[in-house]
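To illustrate the input format used throughout this study, we show a single complete record. The first block contains the structure-token representation of the backbone; no residue identities are included at this stage. The design step must infer an amino acid for every position from geometry alone.
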């Protein structure tokens, strides 16, 4: 008996993996509490500052087997900074006995608090003096210094307030651009994704303004010296690391789109990155860029788009080399080894759930990836036996049937399932998967190529036999109106 599933059924696709065997790559997601293929010291060595501490706190909260080791490393990182208050967040994340864990050095805490208070008073006094003198550049720098100070001590609202105030005293587009980049860095560190689009837009406008201003100044200078060549390129060269600035804006755009669930747009921005300058380590690692780009691309992009933006993208290849298993995932996907793709994603699941930016989206990304792989597997066929599909993905036949039915109900596959014969078939006019049209077009193209080739060979033979008659030169000159443009005639001889 056929199980016909109508395409107009309004039902959401299953977001859980098929209930395959424990060895299956799509079995229930591995417990984040079980550290798999994770070298903690090597992992955390890619980060510095507050980002390293936040990632260690994340490990402490979801990986109990290595929580103690991560706790110790976090305490060391905290004592390298200027924010003793973050220790409380670390303790709240740790589920074990706090008494057994190392505490902060009391002397260091007292000295740090005193030093922070003294520097705060000093910077506020300097800002007050600058404000009384009414020197805009000095006031801007005073707000900038206070913003950096508050960020270093963990007071993000105060830091954002002073960065915002500093924009009121900017005198050039370059100053506005620097301020927007610093605010974006602050928001990413704070994981405040909602405000990213606002400052991305302001930074892009400031970058365009700075380029235009330098371009105009360069043209004036070239006019005075009598040379105008290359003025635009020279103007852009005067903006420090313009490619890095654009990559930073792309990275912020990628995180913004990721937070909204727009995975295709997020992949587009992540795959455009070439270098982030000082943001590497401070906010993200090169391996993270490879993970973000490839996982978002697998879940949302077509095979051709993935090949163009990942395989043929040389700058992004440098990021893939930083994480070998990502290269294995890409190779498995391009060779249609879908079981290998799912097994690698499952094997390194812990690495993904530990990421402070990616972990909320992992279930959805994995679900979309499975659905896209199944759809891609079925596309070339008009009928597929479910047992062969189950073998290709490492699932049981029953779980494969359940997953495919969910895809049919959601519109991912236009087909129906024969429950008795365990066969998936294309439904209605789509039967054949478009292969008949492909064959017809191929045959038509072959006939046309054969006809054109015959004509070419015929003309070449006539030329070899010297049966091409050229018109006299004076006759060509008389036909100046262009109607007798051909300079030779072919005489056909039986």
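Output of the design step:
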């Amino acid at each position: 008996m056929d199980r016909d599933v109508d395409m107009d059924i309004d039902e959401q696709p299953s977001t859980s993996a098929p209930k395959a065997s424990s060895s299956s790559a799509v079995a229930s997601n591995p417990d984040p509490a079980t550290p798999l293929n994770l070298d903690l010291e090597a992992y955390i060595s890619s980060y510095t500052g507050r980002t390293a501490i936040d990632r260690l706190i994340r490990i402490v909260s979801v990986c109990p087997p290595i929580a103690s080791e991560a706790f110790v490393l976090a305490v060391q990182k905290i004592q390298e900074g200027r924010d003793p208050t973050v220790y409380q967040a670390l303790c709240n994340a740790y589920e074990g006995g706090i008494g057994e864990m190392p505490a902060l050095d009391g002397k260091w805490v007292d000295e740090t608090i005193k030093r922070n208070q003294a520097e705060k008073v000093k910077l506020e006094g300097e800002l007050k003096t600058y404000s009384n003198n009414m020197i805009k550049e000095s006031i801007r720098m005073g707000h900038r210094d206070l913003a950096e100070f508050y960020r270093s001590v963990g007071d993000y609202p105060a830091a954002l307030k002073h960065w915002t105030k500093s924009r009121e005293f900017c005198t050039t587009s370059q100053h506005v651009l620097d301020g927007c980049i610093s605010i974006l860095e602050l928001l990413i560190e704070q994981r405040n994704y909602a405000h990213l689009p606002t400052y991305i837009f302001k930074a892009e406008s400031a970058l365009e303004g700075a380029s235009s201003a330098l371009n105009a100044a360069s043209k004036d200078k070239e006019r005075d010296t009598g040379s105008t060549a290359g003025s635009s390129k020279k103007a852009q060269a005067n903006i420090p690391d313009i490619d890095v600035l654009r990559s930073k804006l792309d990275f912020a755009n990628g995180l913004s789109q990721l937070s909204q669930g727009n995975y295709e747009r997020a992949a587009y921005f992540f795959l455009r990155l070439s270098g982030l300058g000082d943001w590497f380590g401070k906010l993200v690692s090169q391996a993270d860029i490879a993970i973000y780009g490839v996982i978002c691309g697998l879940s949302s992009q077509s095979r051709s788009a993935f090949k163009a933006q990942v395989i043929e993208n040389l700058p992004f290849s440098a990021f893939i080399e930083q994480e070998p298993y990502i290269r294995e995932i890409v190779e498995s996907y391009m060779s249609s080894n879908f079981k290998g793709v799912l097994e690698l994603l499952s094997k390194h699941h812990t690495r993904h759930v530990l990421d402070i930016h990616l972990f909320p989206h992992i279930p959805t990304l994995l679900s979309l990836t499975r659905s896209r792989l199944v759809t891609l597997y079925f596309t070339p066929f008009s009928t597929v036996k479910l047992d062969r599909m189950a073998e290709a993905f490492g699932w049981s036949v029953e779980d494969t049937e359940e997953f495919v039915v969910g895809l049919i109900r959601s519109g991912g596959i236009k087909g129906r399932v024969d429950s008795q014969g365990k066969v998936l078939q294309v439904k209605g006019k789509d039967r054949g998967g478009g292969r008949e049209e492909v064959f017809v077009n191929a045959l038509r193209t072959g006939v046309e190529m054969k006809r054109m080739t015959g004509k070419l060979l015929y003309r070449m033979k006539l030329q070899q036999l010297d049966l091409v008659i050229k018109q006299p030169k004076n006759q060509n000159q008389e036909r100046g109106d262009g109607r007798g443009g051909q300079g030779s005639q072919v005489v056909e001889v039986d």
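Structural context for interpreting the output: The CA atoms of residues 114 and 120 lie 10 Å apart. The first strand starts at residue 2 and ends at 3.
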